[in-house]
């Protein structure tokens, strides 16, 4: 192997620590149990050997181990046109934005307002042009439509303006069914199952509650083999113990119990394990997205799931800042780098501000540049003989230059990362270009992308069919 092996990872636990967390989670599942207020789930668990009393399931360790063994160890996500782009295994990492923020921060005006369908369309168009974002989310929650169908409008926008895999969430089982019907306008159900181009995001309620609506979605998605991201969102000190280890234990218990349910419904159903985990700031009561504690817990979860051979989900590129400022840059950089180094498979929430309440296109563009740096860093150093360059060094000799050598021309593009937004010009050149800071350059790129004519990926018939499905759902509410 020519590339160095020293970069690849970040470890916060040894194997003994991983086992402590995992076996404690198994103890919680068997002793405390989880709430499962849904009839079919209770029946599945009871028939499989779990003890179910008053809609609380006490799940034995052997049943968890069975689910871990039957779950796929690799999940491949495709583009809409069928190209494999996300191989979720072995520490491979893929980045995308977060979804359903209530407010958007308009970088050109500084205005904080609710998202319109046009705003979400702009967010999708922009993401499609971000070279280092691997999958797609709507980023914002469409507010100028029937609220019961906003998730359908968002899915429509994503598959209309981008070929990247969309991450979606639905309000209920019917919403998942509607989205599957929409997807079937462009791909047959058999094609979708064979080459899934999407991920279905849903979440439990901490501590240790799987609601009926979420279980309905989980069971249906498992039946149809739609890749599920099961997000267990904790706030250490509020919905979970204030200790980081205790919070990780609850996250594991919720995620592993959801895996059991998924595998009982359909053995081998694809599920991406949870990794959204935060702590509450005791001074402000804010759930902190940018804290080092949140990142430590996320890294610990990643290591446990690596040890179990399961794919998993995490959070990065997000901030507690209110605008895309220096704080946002610091927190985005820290979270993206650590999640990539720990090998989290699906990393979302890029562009989140205000602890997830607001979204920023400016932060998306700036973080896209950061991701390019991280990907170059993760490539490491090429140790092939030609890159070690002993013969060249001997040929050029002491005190001479390498700039005009053919070797430099041959290798400089592959060895050196070239920035898009980051400024490396001399002061005079920067001054002559208007003394623009990073925020100004990001805003210019946004304006340039959104000023270009936008091509739609769907033909007129497909667009009309999607509109019919949305209208039917709006009329049936």
List the helices and strands and how they pair.
Elements (H helix, E strand, L loop, with lengths): L14 H17 L2 E3 L2 H10 L2 E3 L2 E3 L2 H10 L4 E4 L5 E5 L5 E4 L5 E3 L6 E3 L2 H13 L20 H12 L5 E2 L4 H11 L5 H6 L4 E5 L5 E2 L1 H12 L4 E4 L2 E3 L7 H22 L5 E2 L4 E4 L6 E2 L3 H17 L4 E3 L10 H17 L3 E5 L1 E2 L4 E2 L1 H19 L5 H4 L1 H7 L9 H10 L11 H6 L5 H14 L8 H16 L2
Parallel strand pairs: 1-11, 6-18, 7-20, 9-10, 10-12, 12-14, 13-15, 17-18
Antiparallel strand pairs: 1-3, 2-3, 4-5, 7-8, 15-16, 19-20
Helix pairs in contact: 1-9, 1-10, 2-9, 3-9, 4-5, 5-6, 5-18, 6-8, 8-9, 9-10, 10-11, 11-12, 12-17
Mean pLDDT: 95
CATH architecture of the largest domain: Alpha-Beta Barrel
Structural class: alpha/beta
Strand content: 5-15%
Low-confidence stretches: none
Percentage of residues assigned to helices: 40-55%
Shape: globular
Q: Could you tell me how far the N terminus lies from the C terminus, measured between alpha carbons in angstroms?
A: 59 Å
Give the CATH class of the largest domain. Answer: Alpha Beta
Q: What name does the CATH topology of the largest domain carry?
A: TIM Barrel
Task: Kindly report the name of the CATH homologous superfamily of the largest domain.
Answer: Trimethylamine methyltransferase-like
Side-by-side strand order of the widest sheet: 2-3-1-11
* Number of DSSP helical runs: 18
Radius of gyration: 24 Å
User: Largest sheet at a glance?
Assistant: 4 strands, mixed
Whole-number count of domains = 2
Would you report the number of β strands?
20
């Amino acid at each position: 192997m020519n590339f160095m092996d020293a970069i690849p990872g970040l470890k916060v636990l040894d194997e003994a620590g991983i086992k402590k967390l995992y076996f404690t989670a198994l103890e919680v599942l068997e002793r405390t149990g989880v709430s499962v207020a849904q009839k079919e789930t209770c029946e599945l668990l009871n028939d499989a050997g779990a003890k179910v009393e008053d809609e609380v399931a006490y799940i034995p360790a052997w049943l968890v181990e069975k689910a871990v063994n039957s779950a796929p160890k690799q999940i491949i996500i495709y583009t809409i046109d069928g190209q494999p782009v996300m191989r979720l295994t072995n520490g491979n990492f893929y980045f995308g934005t977060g979804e359903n923020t209530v407010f958007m921060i308009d970088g050109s005006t500084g205005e904080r307002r609710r998202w319109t369908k046009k705003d979400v369309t702009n967010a999708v168009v922009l993401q499609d042009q971000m070279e280092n974002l691997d999958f797609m989310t709507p980023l914002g929650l469409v507010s100028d439509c029937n609220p019961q169908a906003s998730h359908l409008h968002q899915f429509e926008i994503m598959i209309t303006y981008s070929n990247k895999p969309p991450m979606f969430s639905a309000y209920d089982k019917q919403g998942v069914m509607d989205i599957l019907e929409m997807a079937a306008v462009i791909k047959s159900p058999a094609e979708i199952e064979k080459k899934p181009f999407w991920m279905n995001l849903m979440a439990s309620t901490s501590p240790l509650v799987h609601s009926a609506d979420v279980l309905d979605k989980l069971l249906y998605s498992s039946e149809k083999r739609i890749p599920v991201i099961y997000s267990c969102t904790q706030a250490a000190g509020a919905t979970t113990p204030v200790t980081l280890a205790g919070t990780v234990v609850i996250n594991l218990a919720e995620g592993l119990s959801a895996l059991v349910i998924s595998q009982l419904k359909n053995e081998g159903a694809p599920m991406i394990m949870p990794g959204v985990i935060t702590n509450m700031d005791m001074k402000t009561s804010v759930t902190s997205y940018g804290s080092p504690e949140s990142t430590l817990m996320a890294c610990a979860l990643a290591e446990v799931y690596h040890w179990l051979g399961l794919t998993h989900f995490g959070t990065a590129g997000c901030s507690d800042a209110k605008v895309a400022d220096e704080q946002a840059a610091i927190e985005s950089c820290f979270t993206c780098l650590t999640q990539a180094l720990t090998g989290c498979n699906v990393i979302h929430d890029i562009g989140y501000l205000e602890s997830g309440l607001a979204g920023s296109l400016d932060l998306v563009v700036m973080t896209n540049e950061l991701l390019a740096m991280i990907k170059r860093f993760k490539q490491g150093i090429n140790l092939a003989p030609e890159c070690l360059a002993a013969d060249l060094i001997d040929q050029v000799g002491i005190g001479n230059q390498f700039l005009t050598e053919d070797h430099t021309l041959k290798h400089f593009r592959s060895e050196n990362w070239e920035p898009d937004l980051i400024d490396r010009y001399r002061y005079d050149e920067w001054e002559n270009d208007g003394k623009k800071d990073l925020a100004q350059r990001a805003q210019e790129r946004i304006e340039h992308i959104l000023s270009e004519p936008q091509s739609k990926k769907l033909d007129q018939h497909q667009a009309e069919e999607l509109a019919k499905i949305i209208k039917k759902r709006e009329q049936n509410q």
